[in-house]
Structures are given as structure tokens and as C-alpha cells.
Design a protein that fits this description.
The complex is a heterodimer.
Chain A: E1 15-16, E2 19-20, H1 23-35, H2 50-53, H3 62-67, E3 70-76, H4 78-81, E4 84-90, E5 93-97, E6 103-112, E7 115-124, E8 130-137, H5 139-147, E9 158-165, E10 172-180, E11 190-193, H6 211-214, E12 224-231, E13 237-239, H7 264-270, H8 282-292, E14 297-302, H9 308-324, E15 330-335, H10 338-345, E16 355-357, H11 361-366, E17 371-372, H12 382-390, E18 394-397, H13 403-412, E19 417-420, H14 423-431
Parallel strand pairs in A: 11-12, 11-19, 12-14, 14-15, 15-16, 16-17, 17-18, 18-19
Antiparallel strand pairs in A: 1-2, 3-4, 3-10, 4-5, 5-6, 6-7, 7-8, 8-9, 9-10, 12-13
Helix pairs in contact in A: 8-9, 13-14
Chain B: H1 3-20, E1 40-50, H2 53-56, E2 62-73, E3 78-86, E4 91-103, E5 106-121, E6 128-144, E7 149-166, E8 169-192, E9 195-206, E10 223-233
Antiparallel strand pairs in B: 1-2, 1-10, 2-3, 3-4, 4-5, 5-6, 6-7, 7-8, 8-9, 9-10
The chains are: A alpha/beta, B mainly beta.
Chain lengths: 433, 234
Amino acid sequence: MMSPGAPRVPSTRWGIGGVRWHPGRLLLLVLLLQLSCNEEVVLPVPAIDVAAELAGTRALPPAVLTAMEGVYEVIDGQALLGREAVVKHTGSGLSIFTDRDAGVVMLECGIADSAIIVVGTWRKLTGTETGVFRASISELHGAARLLAGGTAEAGAVTVLGDFGNATGKGMRPLQLVYRRPLYHGPRPFLVIAHRAGGRNSDHLPASENTAELVRMAERFGANGVEIDVQVTRDGVPVVYHDETLNLRLTQKSGLVGSISDYTLAQIESFVRLKNGERIPTLRRMLGTILRQTTLRFVWLDSKYTVPVALLRDLQRAYVDSARHFNRDLTIVIGLPDAEKVDQLLRIPDYEDATVLCELDVETVRRTHAEIWAPRWTMGTQNALVAAMHAEGRLVLSWTLDNAEYIQQFLRDGDVDGILSNYPSLVAYYHFVQ
Amino acid sequence: MNRTSHTVIVLLLLLLPSALRAQETPEGMHFPAPGPVWSSQSAIGLRLLTVPRDIAEEELNKAPSIEAQSVLSLPWHFSVRGGAVLQVLTNELRLGTHWSWRLGDVSMSVGDDWAFWFGFMNLDGFDNRANGWINYPGVAVGIDLGAARLSARGEGIFLLSQHTLAGESEVSSTKRMLVGTALTLAMEQPISRGTEMYLGVRLSRTKFHYQTWFAFSTFDRHLLFSELLIGVLL
């Protein structure tokens, strides 16, 4: 043993108990420790069979679902929903949005006797908590009024029920009372879901940038989506975010390199996304959005090698289809860098394309972009936003997930929409204004 | 003065005790043994943070920093420890008091460090600044193997405040909450006559790591951050 404070010199005692210590070996051990640090999160599946619980009930007319929309005071259940919750008709049912941890409740509804039954699951997107949700509106608590075609009025609709964790145990009471209608503002506001609904790191039920997720985007509060487009070796535009095939987005496949290294047939044969889906073609995504959602805005983020001219052709085709189906759908081509700007400007009739530009306002003007989309980290930039509005352009901020900053942008800014991984949070703060 | 000048001044201040120290020195930077009263030791090194995939996604997930540390031994087995981890985008200045004792080859200490972190991000598309305070109470244990000293230090990570600016928008929050824990394993060993090096790994399981402030991460779950530590004692 060395005495405290003695000068240290290289020791000839290189081991203890026969074990030799060597900087090289220890470095290896330390590196192994560091490289082994990857946690996999597995979310529980809430123990509820929604279809079975609604068996025997009658379908709720969409008009009644819309009449139920509003800002509700939370009397019981604040641990889940906070003090106020937004109830919104989405898809075939209702969603509830809360400011608690980007919480969202997705509900299916039915009529049993003269009561409205709502059943579903809840999820806090910033964490991994999830669970079951069961509630009803009795005839006396507003169902009679709503089913007769009336509208909700303050205090006239009360939702009673309970919620619990994923196992369905530890149920706690719920009571929500309708207080006021949703805020809709002086002009339409876009709540745009990033990567068709959110990131893989938020452990959603479907992989990011898939048709499966885009069908859920409205349930998360979005009325628009952003999707990332790349092109395969044989020139097919597909929806995929990262530069390479990797384990963040895909299951192990043995394929390495980028999307543009492979044909569509190779990708469809060998690559599965994190939740087992195939990488969708852009045509499939746009077809799903057109026919299976009521989303009204699609932002095509042009990535890497995808030619802007190819996006321009698909944009034109699907805008025509939307018009044919009488769908209010805007499809914009996103220009994230100077290379894509140059590609756009080389298209003979580029002024006819609907374009979103992420670069400076001069480039927005040069490209005749209808939309300016600065990164939110530049702040609200109200003077530039006003200039863009004066020129008839819209302004969108991306990718804003922080609750405090979302509130600031809605309160102090003047943007026309926000792109977020948490559309439910943006929807909540927008509708409670 | 620009930020580089600030960085140089902080490094010089931290290394000053090494220039002024007595002949006898404390036993290393990480080893939690009491040293001769008023003796000091400094070290300079590098840290390499691996950012969890959930935050880094496909972007660069390794963040290197320069590290400088000093320890000054006080009477009654107390010591003052200071350090800086600097990288311009993310920086931390740390100061704490520790009390240690030794039983044969084994040493232990308890202590409490306070850290001020700050950062700037003025690149394309970013106009951001941030700062805040973190408290790291901890305990450490070390064993002297003769040829090397091994030490382990466990800390709680209490995020006391956080202040961020995005353009003209700013968000401040005062939080007094345990956001995570950290374990630092280190080995200190002579590599040539008169020169010692340290090698270690710091594993933080936390909801917040100051070096990822500009990601504006919203995850309310613990993520694992690992840091490789390597340096020389001066």
C-alpha cells in the first residue's frame, strides 16, 4: 500500500491476486461498457378490446360526434387530463387532447340504451405511460340533448367514467364537464404531424413515415402531415427519412447503404420497418391520405437524391385526383436546401408548383413559394412573418415539440401552422385559446 | 473578450493549483482519498459523450469536450474540487466540497457539487442560448491496487433551473427535481515516470443532459448517456 501523498512512480506490482492490470485491457473494458449502452423500450399494450366492449351498441352519427367537440373542465381525472381537456371529433370517433405530457386519448363510441358510450386507450407521448379509458354520457347528463341533434352548452354535458393503467387495474374516476366550444381563430390553422404522425423514438403503434401511421394522424390532432421522400435506384419515390438503411428505422435486413442503392423490388423484398411495415411508395402514401383520411395538407420533404421534377409530376396528379374526389387537399413540395431550389428553378413551369421553402425569405420570393417554413429555433420572427403575410404567403414553423414554446408561438407569434411530433399538444393549445 | 478567451481563462484558473502545489499531492483526481493539507492536483483531458439514439437520430451522436479539473485538500479530510467541461456549444463549470477517509487500501468520500451549464447555438437555422444550474450530490469509493487506483462515484442529478432562448422567445423554468443518476468508473495509473493518466467511463441515466440542450428534447423518460473520460494528471 502506498502512503497518502507519496509521489507515484510506475510500479512493478502489476497485479493483485494473479490478475494483471493493463491500460490497454482496461480501455477495452471501458469501451465495451460504453458501446453496450443501448436501451430498448417496450410499451405495454392496454388490456382492452374496444370492438368487444362496443358490441351491441349502435353507431354514433358523425354529427353527434361533432356536437360533442369542446373544451371540457376536468373534475375527476386531472392526473391524466390536467384541468382542461379538448374533445375533438377525429376519424370514426373522438380524441381527447391534454397538456399533460402530450397526452392523447383515442376513443370509439356507440349508443347503448339512451347513453353515449366511449371506450379507448390513452397515451402520454413524452413518456411511455399508456392505459385504458371507459366513460359514458347518460341520458340525463346530455346524451338526450346530443342525440336529438342539439349542441353542447356549458354545464349541460357531463362525461362520467374511469381510467386505469395498461393492465386495466387501479381504475380511477373521471368526470368531464363541457364548458366552451373549441377556438377556431380568424383563419385556418394547420396542425402538421411530423413524419406522418411522429417519431419512432416516441414508440407509436406504427413506424414513422408509413401509411399505417398517417391513418392515425388525425386521431393525434393533426389536419396535415409532413412526409420524407427519397427515390430508389429504379426511380420510384418512397417515403423514408434517414440517409441510410439503419436500425433506428428498420429491422435487421442485411442491407446497408442508402435507399438509392436499391430497387423498389429489393427494398420491398428485404426491408421491413421497425413495426414490420414495408417502406411505402409515395403513391401509396398519397393514395392513403386521399382516400382514407380527411387531412387537408401534405408537406413532401424532398430528401437527398429525389428529383424535384418527379415530385412536381406526382403533386400535379394527386391534386387533380383530390379535386376529382372533391377533397380539400393541398400538397406542397418542401425545399430544404439550395440544391433543391436549383432543381425547382430548372423546371420550365416551376411557378405553377405549390412550394414550401425552408430557406431565407429572399429565396422564398425567388422560388415563388406559397409557404415560408423557418426552423422554430429562430424564434417567432414576427416582422418577417408579417412581410410574408403581406405578400400573400403562409408561414409554418418546424419542428416544435416543447410545450412552453408552442404556447409562446401561438400567443406571441402569427404563424399559420406548426409542424410537431406532438400534434395533440399543438391542437390542445390551439383549441383552448 | 470572445468565448475562446473565456475558455482559455477558465482552463488556466483550473490548472493554477497544479503550478503552485506543494511537493506532496493528493492521490489522483478521481480517487477519493484525503490528501496532505493544502496540497493540490490538476488534470486535463478529453470527454467523449455518446448521445442516445432517441435524441441524436441519424445526426452525429458523439460530442467531444475538453475537461480540466483541480482538487485542493483542506484540513480535516475536506477537499474542494472544481472542474470545467468545455465545448462552446455546451459547457459546464463545476465546484464542490468533499469529505473523505481512508481504511487501508480503500478510500471513500461524500460530497456535493454545484454546476452552472451554458451553451450557444448560432448556426444556420438556430439562434439559441441556454444556461442552468445542476446539483450533483454523491458518494465515492476507491481501492488502491498499487499499480493502479480504481474508483467509483455515484451521483444524483438535480436539475435546479433551466433557461433557454430561441430568437426573441425565451422559456425559464425552476425545477428542483431529481432527473437522474450517474456512475463514474475510473482508473488512474502511472504511465511513465512522473506521469499519470486516468481512464474512465461515466454512465448517466437521466431525463436531462446539459450537453443535449439544443435538441430541446421533450422526452420525460430516462435515457442512458455514456461518456468516455481520458486525461493526464499534471
